[in-house]
Write a structure and sequence with these properties.
190 residues; Rossmann fold
């Protein structure tokens, strides 16, 4: 596999990603072993390097101040998601944290977003998703949720707009700076 082939798949859950690269026979033969290796490798080599975006806690406080609920809908495993929320310093700012273990299929399937909506007691049109991959947008749209894109996930603005994002921001700090005029900031007003 080339780096670019793999990079274009980032944002999908493992259940959606592995079939792109392994046949059914290969998945049966060593799919579980590869998933175990991936998890151990990530935890030992890359997790210590993960750093949060500094504006995220302030952005989520702004969302709370607007009297909106906050859900994190991630293709990560529950144990991984808890670590990410802790690293980002937002565990106490999130109302609902949905992991791949809470849904049948991960992104780009809509399951994770549908569980988040059900848990919050909302329908898709009452929510706004923020994502950094086309797979986030695809999953959110299939759950009826309009989406804001972030360029911090490595995809281009064109990729995110093509996937259906209402608007695209360079990162969380830019969304925070423009919060009142953003689809999230406007969601309670309109």
């Amino acid at each position: 596999m080339t780096f670019e082939q793999v990079r274009r798949q980032i944002g999908k859950g493992g259940d959606q990603l592995i079939p792109v690269f392994l046949s059914e026979a290969e998945q049966r033969d060593h799919g579980a072993e590869m998933e175990r290796w991936r998890g151990e490798r990530f935890k030992s080599k890359y997790l210590p390097l993960v750093r949060p975006f500094s504006a995220v806690p302030d952005l989520l406080r702004c969302v709370r101040d607007a009297d909106l609920k906050i859900a994190v809908a991630s293709s990560a495993k529950k144990s991984e998601l808890e670590v990410y929320l802790d690293i980002a310093g937002i565990t106490d700012l999130v109302d609902v944290a949905i992991s791949s273990e809470d849904a049948g299929r991960s992104k780009p399937a809509p399951d994770i977003f549908q569980v988040a909506l059900e848990t919050l007691g909302l329908v898709g049109s009452e929510a706004v998703a923020i994502g950094d991959t086309p797979y986030d947008t695809e999953a959110a749209q299939r759950a009826g949720i309009p989406t804001i894109g972030m360029l911090c996930g490595g995809f281009t603005e064109a990729d995110l707009r093509r996937s259906g994002c209402l608007s695209v921001y360079p990162g969380p700090g830019a969304l925070l700076a423009c919060f009142g005029a953003s689809p999230v900031g406007q969601s309670k007003r309109g």
